[in-house]
Amino acid sequence: MKEIFIKKPTYQVMVGSVPVGGGSPIVVQSMTNTDTADIQKTVEQVFDLWKAGSEIVRVTVNNEASADAIPHIIEGLQKRNCHVPIVGDFHFNGHKLLQAYPECAKLLAKYRINPGNVGKGSRRDEQFEAMIAIAKTYDKPVRIGVNWGSLDQVKLAAMMDENAKLKMPLPSDALMREALIQSALESAEQAVSWGLQKNKIVISCKVSVVQDLILIYQELAKRTSYPLHLGLTEAGMGSKGIVASTAALAILLQQGIGDTIRVSLTPTPDESRTNEVVVAQEILQTMGIRSFTPLVTACPGCGRTTSTYFQELALEIQTFLRESMPQWKDTFPGVEDMSVAVMGCVVNGPGESKLANIGISLPGTGEIPVAPVFVDGEKTVTLKGDKIAHEFKAIVMNYVESHYSKLK
Ligand code: SF4
């Protein structure tokens, strides 16, 4: 991690084999949207998320069928050589499901508990304690995951009453933020009082408004050393979801806040769930925090680009690099830091190409139809004709093999 990111020290929590907090790299995680009881579909989606780079995957465990499915899902994944830690997301009936399905409790890598809907009234503490007892039995960590949409209303009402008596009452949005923070921290302290170790707790306080999320996590980071799971909840679809999540997460990450991130995008019906993993990785990588896959620098194109060829080449190269990563990860260590530039003309093309490990500058309007290629800042070859894409890919592949091979 670059020196500009001064991380606040947190406890290290092991989620299966993945460390969260305590100075370990910021972890990318995601969540399925299949019916967990549909074993085949859930295995398929977890596998895809993992292949895309999700290091932890959460599944909802909302009923007996889904609790019963967990061992089968994990078995199905292991058959495909996928050992990604699976987290169970529990709400109202989590205590009952974990008690009734010990294999599910044993095989999950972490339990997500929402203190706002773990139980009502006097049952709340009893049911929460039952879940913590099971976590202790199986030596599992938990995430105390508070969410604005399911904030403990009794707690909020009591805080509002107290607030109204103050000479200078807090504005309602500040009170809401404080209620979320207190709900998370008090629930964590309860869990500790029942014997859960501090290095078994991750905290999250998710809201859907960017500025509120930033203020809440800045405050959490001051008040606690539990690792923090960052995410803007209900971020939305398409560019809105991506922009809102990036705006919130980037500011917090820049301040050294956050140990694991999830980008909660609403996929369009034909969109892959894995996009949320790509976005999370790209936030970390473009900020210089962690590298996952070689990135393509491409100019936006303008009136000097005569056809869509340049866009097609940039897309083809980015897709080729991303799809190659699952195989390259082990064979070519360090390749994730490689940069490739695909530029539309000679105005900025050679300059950007020289800065990248490999760069190509395609011919713009009125330019000679040739494409100079730069490798480590030096012009090596000029491509022409209709096989430019094919030849450029071969140059990239050759660079990867000669610079990152383990056997070198
Ligand atoms: S590099 Fe050339 S094609 Fe690309 S935006 Fe700049 S001027 Fe336009």
TrEMBL record:
Its cofactor is [4Fe-4S] cluster. Pathway: Isoprenoid biosynthesis; isopentenyl diphosphate biosynthesis via DXP pathway; isopentenyl diphosphate from 1-deoxy-D-xylulose 5-phosphate: step 5/6. It is an enzyme of class 1 (oxidoreductase). [4Fe-4S] cluster binds at residues 299, 302, 345, 352. It comes from the Bacteria. Residues 10-280 form the IspG TIM-barrel domain. InterPro entries: Dihydropteroate_synth-like_sf, IspG_bac, IspG_bac-typ, IspG_C, IspG_TIM, NO2/SO3_Rdtase_4Fe4S_sf. It catalyses: (2E)-4-hydroxy-3-methylbut-2-enyl diphosphate + oxidized [flavodoxin] + H2O + 2 H(+) = 2-C-methyl-D-erythritol 2,4-cyclic diphosphate + reduced [flavodoxin]. Binds 1 [4Fe-4S] cluster. Its EC number is 1.17.7.3. Residues 296-396 form the IspG C-terminal domain. One of its GO terms (biological process) is terpenoid biosynthetic process. Keywords: 4Fe-4S, Iron, Iron-sulfur, Isoprene biosynthesis, Metal-binding, Oxidoreductase. Pfam families: GcpE (PF04551), GcpE_C (PF26540). One of its GO terms (molecular function) is iron ion binding. Converts 2C-methyl-D-erythritol 2,4-cyclodiphosphate (ME-2,4cPP) into 1-hydroxy-2-methyl-2-(E)-butenyl 4-diphosphate. NCBIfam families: ispG_gcpE (TIGR00612), PRK00366.1 (NF001540). Belongs to the IspG family. This is 4-hydroxy-3-methylbut-2-en-1-yl diphosphate synthase (flavodoxin). It comes from Candidatus Methylopumilus rimovensis. The gene is ispG.
